[in-house]
């Protein structure tokens, strides 16, 4: 028997230990402590800031990847808790998580957004996807011969118009250079329980979520019909590939990558809105500030954000999502 086969039970036991609730709780505590201490040192210690400044021009953005990792672990802990509760107790588990952790989640999101905005202060920014539409259309038009789009969003409502505008602009050319279109879209799973949006009144909360899910379904169907219609004016449908998958976790990033070279990314703001006169905590996707990212950018922030977003997208696509069916 090889040494690898002998150690296999040990590896399996180690994996089980690493997946346990106690270990994941410890990961959350350790990461939170590191981020807290790191942020304090960056803020109040000039010497610490100067030392880090020797290795990176923007030391203040270093806690951002750690904060994103912390949010991901919190997701895992929350879902492990829900699995332990069992399906029969799922609504009660969701309510318990909301009641206990909602303010923590709001604070974490505000902190993540603040790190992101401060870190991207020297990069090209837009106040929303709508404001960035001209740049998106230009980037998409400039691709040839293949166009590959990777889109990560809550409902994808804001990304559809720029893609359609780009398709129409390409079709208007006398000789379109594009030969193939591939679109991968990650959307929020409407078949799982959500932490956000949140209304304190349980009945209203249920009705609001039901309306949102119906609207999202309609929007996702629009992608299939409208993308095929507009790009179908340029290419045969056999050359147009659109695939959607649904991810079960709370959304953090909103973004689009074009041919895995350039794109936009933002962090979903979490704020108050109203519905039928009631206060709602919700993700404000149409107000998400967007920042340019590029694989070969001279900006450390743009390159780091590109790699982080690309990894986040591919991890969700390959390991934490399921196929969407019309």
Describe this structure as you would to a colleague.
- The protein is α+β, with helices and mostly antiparallel strands and 326 residues long.
- It has two domains: 3-119, no CATH class; 125-323, Endonuclease Chain A (Endonuclease, Chain A), CATH 3.30.870.
- It has helices at 3-18, 21-44, 46-53, 63-85, 90-119, 133-141, 160-171, 202-231, 300-319; strands spanning 125-126, 146-152, 180-188, 240-247, 253-258, 262-267, 270-275, 278-283, 290-294, 322-323.
- The strands form two sheets. The chain has an eight-stranded mixed sheet with strand order 1-9-6-5-2-3-4-10, with helices on both faces. A two-stranded antiparallel ribbon has the order 7-8.
Strand order of the largest sheet: 1-9-6-5-2-3-4-10
CATH homologous superfamily (4th level) name of the largest domain:
Endonuclease Chain A
Radius of gyration: 22 Å
Strand fraction: 15-25%
CATH topology type of the largest domain: Endonuclease, Chain A
* Series of H and E elements: HHHHHEHEHEHEEEEEEHE
Low-confidence stretches: 85-90
Mean pLDDT: 81
Q: Number of folding domains? A: 2
Q: Share of helix among residues?
A: 40-55%
What kind of sheet is the major sheet? 8 strands, mixed
**Structure summary, number of beta strands:** 10
How many angstroms does the end-to-end distance come to?
50 Å
Q: Any idea of the CATH class of the largest domain?
A: Alpha Beta
Structural class by SSE content: alpha+beta
